[in-house]
């Protein structure tokens, strides 16, 4: 039956990695649970491993995890002869707003949801285009002023050399 040899706490390499090693013959199938729920692999969270003989070694990789990814991670290895599981706590980030801010917002009748924190993409792109347009206008204005100062600023009105 499968046996979990190692399961390590998350470590940051290029991505956060929960390293594991599982032994089993026949080779076990592996899947993960997050806080008791089946973990779906996405482009943000995925598993990479390689089989070397009877040992599977690899990582559960996290690409820029947030506080939503904190919790207990359980690896489950299963083959025809049985199954094995082991759990480890993964802590990546603290919640962004301490309880005092949430209680203040709630006392004012405001709620803080991910949707309310996001900017409308059309309004944001319009603001960016306005800022870029103003910056381009300022650059053109500075170039014109520089040319005019160089062209007309050198002549003395009364023929004096200064």
From TrEMBL:
The chain crosses the membrane at residues 124-149. The keyword Aminoacyl-tRNA synthetase does not apply. The keyword Transcription does not apply. Pfam families: I-set. InterPro entries: Ig-like_dom_sf, Ig-like_fold, Ig_I-set, NTRK3. Keywords: Membrane, Transmembrane, Transmembrane helix. One of its GO terms (molecular function) is neurotrophin receptor activity. Residues 21-88 form the Immunoglobulin I-set domain. One of its GO terms (cellular component) is plasma membrane. One of its GO terms (biological process) is cell surface receptor protein tyrosine kinase signaling pathway. This is NTRK3 factor. The gene is Ntrk3_0.
């Amino acid at each position: 039956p499968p046996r979990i040899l190692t399961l390590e706490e998350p470590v940051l390499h290029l991505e956060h990695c929960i390293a594991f090693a599982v032994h089993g013959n026949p080779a076990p199938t592996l899947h993960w649970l997050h806080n008791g729920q089946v973990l779906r692999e996405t482009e943000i969270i995925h598993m990479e491993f390689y089989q070397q003989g009877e040992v599977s070694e690899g990582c559960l990789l996290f690409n820029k995890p947030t506080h939503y990814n904190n919790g207990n991670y359980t690896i489950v290895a299963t083959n025809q002869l049985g199954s094995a599981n082991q759990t480890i706590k993964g802590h990546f980030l603290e919640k962004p707003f301490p309880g005092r801010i949430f209680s203040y917002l709630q006392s004012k009748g405001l709620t803080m949801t991910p949707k309310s924190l996001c900017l409308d993409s059309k309004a944001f792109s319009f603001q960016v285009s306005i800022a870029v347009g103003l910056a381009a206008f300022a650059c053109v204005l500075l170039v014109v002023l520089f040319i005019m100062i160089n062209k007309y600023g050198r002549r003395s009105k009364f023929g004096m050399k200064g």
